[in-house]
From TrEMBL:
Residues 318-336 have a biased composition (Low complexity). This is Endonuclease/exonuclease/phosphatase domain-containing protein. Residues 76-379 form the Endonuclease/exonuclease/phosphatase domain. Residues 317-337, 411-501 are annotated as: Disordered. It comes from Brevirhabdus pacifica.
Length: 501
């Protein structure tokens, strides 16, 4: 069986970074209180309101050149990026965290080692789930059409090795059985929009039928609540809509990866599942890296806009002072909402997308939002603020951790004076998990749309009528190359997995 959570932590590695910073912050309070100046805004996220849960997503970019290298870096305890990632997570204090951009190994050793570091930094997260992603999984086909096999873009998802840039879920709450939608083939998605070149499927008919939808992974994770209700986490990391050709394979795929959650919310499910994936009494919460900004950057932005408008979800619009301060002056819609610090120019001096909003936490519309933000502090004066032994303030620490910033939303499962939502169970998949490879238990999704689940347009697979065309292409695409976000996408089997403490 694949081991999830509860994996023995690696040898004890002392972490003094967070303790030092917290002491430094406390020491500044009397001085500032005695002054006539107003107290500064907190540099770290404030604690959640009593009774609230903090749900976060963080693309930590903990990716390395080969398998096992990340585990080495975590275990040795001397890697500045790992230390910074641990400090960011411990300071943010999430109850539930989707960690993206994380090299995943079969037995979860890297995840166990990182959990140990986070716990020693003062924020234990006793429950976890991890599984090998599509990234780096060999397809045996020429998926990028370059006439060669076994390149990183020929994998089911872009990656130099299986597990590169995967995902992990960490939680302070127990987790239910996980439904892994990552094996779903793109062609099996209702109304699938497949890439074409010269009027033919790209790169060929066989590859188009076997290519998976998920660049990394799509997971449905139930989280039982004390009041008898249940959160249903919709977790994913979509590939970037760039690095392709006129067939727009990555642009189309990114849009479809985001559209999958709209279909699931509207009641669609693979044909061999019993009932809907999300029950009417469940409280869905989407958390992931969409790699799509609705206002700026490359890709088919209507896909993200439609997801933000879904009536079952709510956009709390997390913002930060650091993102607003980092705005270069380029037209960027609402810069305070940005979640990634990308350059405005590439190495050759050409235009690059700059800062964008590509990470989202969208809770159920019935949940009361009690707080939200992006952990992106504005730069501090050198003379003030808590600093680590290297003289770094929080703005420098979050920049050392990743170009992406941790996004968090606090929700109260039950409004004051109201009873919790009625629990609804997910019917089990037909098939069973066996062995240690992702995907035991074959399930063939249906191309038949769910009855009675039409959108306002009357077609369950069309974009809302407010758009002139679904997913309009952007002719200025494919200019920026993020360090570790290029993901490719084919066939496997949907599986039910059990997370363990």
């Amino acid at each position: 069986m694949v081991r999830h959570g509860g994996i023995a932590a690696c040898r004890n590695v002392g972490l003094r970074l967070v303790a030092f910073l917290l002491v430094g912050l406390l020491c500044t309070v009397p001085v500032r209180a005695a002054s006539a100046q107003a107290p500064p805004l907190p540099l770290t996220p404030p604690p959640p309101e009593k009774g609230s849960l903090r749900i976060a997503v963080f693309n930590a970019e903990l990716t390395r050149r080969g398998p096992g290298v990340l585990l080495r870096d975590i275990s040795q305890g001397r890697d500045p990026q790992v230390e910074a990632v641990v400090a960011v997570i411990a300071a943010a204090r999430p109850d539930i965290l989707l960690l993206a951009g994380f090299d995943t190994d079969l037995d979860g050793h890297a995840l166990a080692a990182l959990r140990g570091q986070i716990s020693r930094a003062g924020h234990p997260m006793d429950h976890a789930f991890g599984a090998l992603p599509n990234a780096g999984l060999s397809s045996g086909m020429d998926l990028d059409g370059d006439g060669r096999l076994n390149g990183p873009r020929d994998a089911q998802g872009y990656g130099a090795f299986h597990g590169a840039g995967g995902m992990a879920l960490l939680s302070r709450l127990p987790l239910g059985s996980v439904t892994d939608l990552s094996p779903l083939r793109w062609a099996e998605l209702p109304g699938a929009r497949l890439p074409r070149r010269g009027g033919k499927l790209f790169p060929d008919e066989k590859a188009a039928q076997q290519r998976r939808l998920s660049s990394v992974a799509h997971w449905l994770v139930p989280v039982p609540l004390p009041d008898g209700g249940r959160l249903m986490l919709m977790l994913y990391h979509a590939g970037p809509p760039v690095f392709d050709g006129p067939e727009d394979a990555n642009g189309l795929r990114n849009a479809e990866e985001n559209r999958l959650w709209r279909l699931v919310l509207d009641g669609w499910a693979p044909s061999q599942t019993e009932g809907q994936l999300i029950g009417s009494g469940d409280l869905p919460v989407l958390a992931g890296i969409s790699n799509l900004d609705v206002r700026r950057g490359e890709g088919r932005r209507a896909a993200m806009a439609a997801l933000l408008r879904h009536p079952r979800l709510r956009d709390a619009r997390p913002a930060s002072a650091g993102a607003a301060a980092a705005n270069s002056g380029a037209p960027n819609g609402e810069p305070a909402l940005d979640t990634v610090d990308w350059p405005e120019e590439d190495a050759a001096g050409g235009p690059a997308p700059g800062n964008l909003r590509v990470a989202y936490v969208l809770p159920d519309a019935r949940l009361r939002v009690t707080g939200a933000g992006v952990f992106w502090p504005a730069p501090q004066p050198k003379a003030g603020g808590a600093r680590d032994r290297g003289g770094r303030g929080w703005a420098e620490i979050v920049a050392t951790a990743s170009r992406h910033r941790l996004v968090w939303v606090d929700v109260a499962p039950s409004p004051p004076g109201a009873s919790g939502p009625r629990r609804a169970d997910i019917s089990p998949l037909r098939g069973r998990v066996r062995g240690t490879t992702p995907g035991a238990g074959r399930v063939r999704p249906s191309l038949t749309p769910p009855a009675g689940r039409d959108t306002p347009s009357g077609d369950p697979f069309k974009e809302p009528a407010t758009h002139e065309q679904p997913y309009p292409s952007d002719p200025s695409r494919r200019r920026h190359r993020p360090r570790s976000d290029d993901r490719g996408a084919p066939h496997h089997r949907l599986v039910r997995r059990q997370a363990r403490p």
